[in-house]
Write a structure and sequence with these properties.
Blueprint: E1 11-12, H1 26-36, H2 47-66, E2 75-78, H3 81-92, E3 98-101, H4 107-116, E4 122-125, H5 136-142, E5 147-153, H6 165-174, E6 178-182, E7 201-205, E8 217-221, H7 223-226, H8 261-277, H9 279-297, E9 303-306, E10 317-322, H10 327-338, E11 340-341, E12 343-345, H11 350-356, E13 363-367, H12 374-387
Parallel strand pairs: 1-11, 3-4, 3-5, 5-6, 6-7
Antiparallel strand pairs: 2-8, 7-8, 9-10, 10-13, 12-13
Helix pairs in contact: 1-8, 2-8, 3-4, 9-12, 10-12
């Protein structure tokens, strides 16, 4: 089976789903592990296993630096950000607890919360503007006596709007609430300071802005939250094997079973690239493309930009509602006729689309990556011009 799209003239604008191409050396690092020594850490007592474990430890250090965590031991690996958020929602919340969320949340938050209603968990949505803006004072007004946690994404996967997590974290500290942040669309693009923003639970995925492979993600956890959160999944850790109880120490407490070592090795290579390149340079490049795209799309009065129309408080994710066309047909024609790959629909975030007034039709989403160019945007704009011509 061949997946070679590098030279077939296609344009990839779906980096909100997963980044492509991946960072340099990601595939090579993963292949090297699988070819020359796919040993299992915390199990094998030999040199090759120790060498792999050293890279895993280094990856924890990279993530602790990236997110400004106190200690790399608080870095927990999971199969992805959805798993991570489930670990928090189902491992921490108890009957009678109340949770606050924004009006932009992904189903990775909303579906677990809906499930937990049967366990006596309640939740409310903080008032959110039609461009995705969340005002911290609206959060403060919504806090109840039984509110235990605030769960919010850092940047919208639908329209790119950035949530003011530093201000929200300050409110959470003052009101003694645990603060969980979904960084799916911000990690690897804009700075996230776990300590500075008062974040107790930071969920990340490796395959979007972090430029790594699919199937690897995780979370970082504060000491205070760890002391009152139970492991959602239990099993072998390669440590304290004489006990039927899960280890209390980090990261073993939350890492049952064999880790996705090829994924971690690939993520290590991607994080090395990000450290060498710098977040500021990566973000600036993406935002220049976003500025240019928004400028060009302003030429079409019958196309509505969902969310913010400017560059302030946003990431490189833009959703369009083709008001005189069928969005699904438009996305299909963009790919079939012009080779432009986007994502159309509700983006696993119906709550966000209701907030943005793009429900139920959804939008066509364009998410720009480090390798996209203005020339590709020009080709896209000409395609849109032809498709929407009267």
């Amino acid at each position: 089976m061949c997946f070679d799209h590098a030279n077939d003239g296609k344009i990839y604008f779906d980096n909100g789903s997963t980044s492509w191409p991946k960072a340099p050396n990601v595939a090579e690092a993963m292949a090297d592990l699988l070819t020359n020594g796919a040993f299992n850490i915390n199990r094998g007592n030999y040199e090759g296993a120790y060498e792999v474990e050293s890279i895993v430890l280094d990856t924890r250090d990279q993530l602790a630096r990236l997110f400004h965590a106190k200690d790399s031991r608080c870095v927990i690996f999971t199969p992805g950000i959805t798993y991570s958020l489930n670990y928090f929602i189902k491992g921490f919340l108890r009957r009678g607890d109340h949770v606050l969320v924004s009006g932009m949340e992904h189903n990775a938050v909303m579906r677990p919360l809906k499930q937990m209603e049967a366990q006596g968990i309640t939740w409310d949505t903080v008032r959110t503007e039609t461009d995705g803006t969340v005002h911290p004072e609206a959060l403060e007004d919504a806090v109840r006596s039984n509110t235990r946690a605030v769960i919010m994404l850092h940047a919208s996967n639908v329209c790119g709007t950035v949530v003011p997590i530093r201000e929200i974290g300050e409110i959470c500290r003052r009101r003694h609430l645990f603060f969980a942040v979904d960084t799916a669309q911000s990690a690897g693009t804009i700075p996230v300071d776990m300590q500075g923003c008062g974040i107790d639970f930071l969920a990340f995925t490796g395959h979007k802005g972090l430029l790594g492979p699919q199937g690897i993600g995780g979370f970082l956890i504060s000491e205070e939250l760890d002391s009152c959160m139970e492991p959602y999944i239990a099993g072998g850790t390669g440590s304290q094997s004489d006990s039927l109880l899960m280890p209390e120490r980090l990261p073993d407490k939350y890492e049952s079973g064999t880790l996705n070592l090829p994924g971690i090795i690939g993520l290590h290579a991607a994080l090395s690239y990000i450290e060498e390149t710098g977040l500021e340079r990566i973000h600036a490049g993406k935002m220049e493309l976003t500025r240019y795209f928004l400028e060009r799309i302003g030429e079409f009065p019958k196309i509505r930009v969902a969310g913010k129309v400017g560059l302030e408080d946003r990431v490189a994710v833009v959703s369009l509602d083709f008001e005189k066309e069928d969005n699904a047909v438009t996305a299909f024609e963009l790919e079939q006729r012009y080779g432009i790959m986007t994502r159309v629909g509700l983006h696993c975030a119906p709550a966000a689309h209701q907030t943005l007034h793009t429900y139920p039709q959804g939008t066509v989403r364009f998410a720009f990556g480090t390798e996209n160019t203005k020339e590709e945007i020009d080709r896209c704009i000409e395609g849109i011009r032809e498709l929407t011509a009267d």
